[in-house]
Amino acid sequence: MKKILLFVLLSTVRLVAQKTAPPAPYGAVPSPQQVQWQQMEYYMFIHFGPNTFTNKEWGHGDEDPKVFNPTRLDARQWARTAKAAGMKAIIITAKHHDGFCLWPSKFSKHTVRESAWKNGQGDVLRELSNACKEYGLKFGVYLSPWDRNHPAYGTPEYNQIFANTLNEVLSSYGDVFEQWFDGANGEGPNGKRQEYDWNLFRGVVFKHQPKAIIFSDIGPGCRWMGNESGIAGETNWSTLNTDGFGMGSAAPSTQVLNTGNENGKYWIPAEVDVSIRPGWFYSPDTDDRVKTLTHLMKIYYSSVGRNGNLLLNVPVSREGLIHPNDSTRLMEFRKTVVESFKTNLAIGKTATASSVRGKDTQFAASNLIDGKFDSYWTTDDAIRQGSIVIDLGKPTEINRVVLQEYIPLGQRVKSFKVEAWNGSQFVLVDQQTTIGYKRILVFPTLKTAKVRVSILEANACPVLSEIAIYKAPELLSNPEIARNKQGVVTISSEVADPIIRYTTDGSEPTLASTRYTAPFNYAKGGTIKARAFIKNGTESSEIIPASFDLAPEKWSVVGEESGRSLASRAIDSNPRTIWQTARQEGSKKHPHELVIDLGENLNLKGFTYTPRQDGQSGGTIYQYSFFVSENGKEWKPVLENSSFANIKNNPVKQEIPFASPQKARFIKLVALSSVNENENWASAAEVGVLLN
Ligand code: FUL
Fold first, then answer.
1. Quick one: how many helices (H) and strands (E) in the chain?
2. Residue 646 Cα, ligand 1 centroid: separation in angstroms?
3. Domain named F5/8 type C: which ranges (predicted)?
4. In the predicted model, is pLDDT for residue 215 greater than 70?
């Protein structure tokens, strides 16, 4: 009898409990596909094509398709590497701006069929889509509408040709989880630009792949987050206003793409695309410049840790393989992420909230520490603030807090803070703005028994899915290598009492390498590799490489007339200072020039241009000509009407080789256009030369 009574009582409690309805969705919400997509978090981008073989970032479409000839292509090796790296998918450049198709397309004459690879019988998309299936990875395709090869580009027929091309890819290789549309819109082989028919293109995608996420500047599935350096906004809304906007130059500003719009009309979350090397395509010149582990971790925290998915580019080499330098780094990266988030210290502890929706246990704070995304803590509709205390039971070392909103009900939180109990009161650890699907706070290790998370402002009652607490292993900070205008190198480190060792012959520094004790002269340039050792060499930092051209010790700027602001800043070896020209008068925008006296006759094999590194693009040069002279009077053109490919989105140092070595005492860089339309001036962080 007692048992029956208890049963009746419990059922009534449950009935009462079920009366508390969950919160209504707030604002734009993700589709089920977008939620699944967001949960993928991290996947691989592969740039591969003729550029891999020609050292270019943007091919012109006039390259001989025979240059595409990987000697040992193995798509299974790519998939195996991605899988071992913890990635969930691979997106490949099926067609980049040069128009070259990695499959034998019926709609182009610039494809693998015309290449030397497998005597024209190969199909990279077939091999990769099969390998992805074998390794349980999703498969995605990048197709550039901009086509510098197709003769119809720039004419109305091209839109249908591009739609047919898309149709071919999306109906031939099984499921495609993401269709990547590049917004770049430049000239075709006929010098014309295309008006793209995006409605037509989107229709083709959804016809064959109704579940695909479409990436573009403005979605609709996910959006570009405004830069190619891996840094999403600290504030990052997954909602965006796109009415009235388009792709490329018609897109919202990069600043808006970086942060999204609070209360934006559509759910278009950020995808963070960044390359593991300085450029998107493979080049043997960058084998030594694979991003360090520390840099990749920083990118992880500013992408996945800021409500964005990380699309990390790993360019396939000329052999058709992922290079060992990249795969080694990917494995180190994977290991560090796994170790950092191995043990959630909140699991099994207690969580108490300031209030719970309808006082109903189904919305209790314990849902925050159950490791399940689908259960959540929330409050009554009228309550938009709240705090949760997680009691760790005893003083515990922590340095990461991970928060997640339950995004199927929308993104709500505008600001929050995290505090730690110091024995007598809560002290602030960090205060931030948005959370979204995932927000990771990184802070120096502290010891505490209780963590308090407070939602300070939200657009509707907060709905949080998880709060997790970790103690990630600390990485030993890396040495920094700097060289001044005179060519004197200094190596510093934040590590206490490090022993820094370095090499100048390209080899890896070991305990037996030269020890750094004082600044030294390295004016002629080359590559220095440094590494910090502690605890008698049982622990060491990463190996940090730095490459230098000839130091601009003897150089001077010629004709530094007034009005031109500090041209010498382009040759001061300090990329933080910028040369900016005066504005052109009237409607004239360009040219602008920089003339440098190298102080001696040199044999040059190329030049370098470092655009401003302050996050702005004002004055960054796009088209240019380059001249040399032995006397400063007669000038010889070396490169005319050339351009720095992709410099606007990826403003890294440009190393431009000459077709043949040039004797020169004077050099002249003439800026012919800026990356920004309507700009009538030019800028540079540094200009340098490459010696033969
Ligand atoms: C950009 C392109 O222009 C680059 O070459 C690269 O493919 C990058 C991912 O997107 O818009």
1. 10, 33
2. 7
3. 531-692
4. yes
Tell me how far the alpha carbon of residue 576 lies from the centroid of ligand 1, in angstroms: 25
CATH code of the domain occupying 40-339? 3.20.20.80
Q: How far is the CA of 86 from the centre of ligand 1 (A)?
A: 24
Amino acid code (one letter) for 70: P
350-470 and 556-691 share one fold: yes
CATH of domain 350-470: 2.60.120.260
Which pLDDT tens digit goes with each residue over 582-596?
888 888 889 999 999
What is the dotted CATH code of the domain comprising 556-691? 2.60.120.260
Q: Compute the distance from residue 659 Cα to the ligand 1 centre, in Å.
A: 25
Kindly give the number of the ligand 1 atom that is closest to the alpha carbon of 57.
5
Instruction: Summarize pLDDT for 519-539 with one digit per residue, the tens.
Output: 999 999 999 999 999 888 888
pLDDT at 493 over 90: no
**Nearest-atom index, ligand 1, CA of 146:** 3
Q: Is 161 helix (H, G, I), strand (E, B) or coil?
A: helix
Q: Name 322's bridge partners.
A: 316
Burial class (CB in 10 A: 0-12, 13-18, 19+), 641: exposed
Burial letters for 371-395: b for 16+ Cβ neighbours within 10 Å, e otherwise? eebebbbbbbeebbbbbbbbebeee
Determine which helix (DSSP H) or strand (DSSP E) holds 688, and give its type and residue range: strand 686-691
pLDDT attached to residue 496: 72
pTM passes above 0.85:
yes
**Pocket of ligand 1, beta carbon within 6 A:** 57-58, 182, 184, 273, 280, 646, 649
Average pLDDT of the residues in 380-406: 98
Sequence-distant (6+) residues with CB within 8 A of 623 are 641, 642, 643, 671, 672, 673
Inter-residue contact 196 to 247 (CB < 8 Å): yes
Largest CA distance in the chain: 110
Instruction: State the distance between the two ends of the chain, measured CA to CA, in whole angstroms.
Output: 97
- How much is the mean pLDDT over the chain? 94
pLDDT, tens digit (0-9, with 9 covering 90-100), for 549-562: 999 999 999 986 54
C-alpha to C-alpha distance for 494 and 177, rounded to whole angstroms: 43
Pairing of strands 636-643, 544-548: unpaired
How many Å apart are CA 595 and CA 684, to the nearest integer? 13
Query: Domain limits of the chain?
Result: 40-339, 350-470, 480-548, 556-691
CATH 3.40.50.9100 describes domain 480-548: no
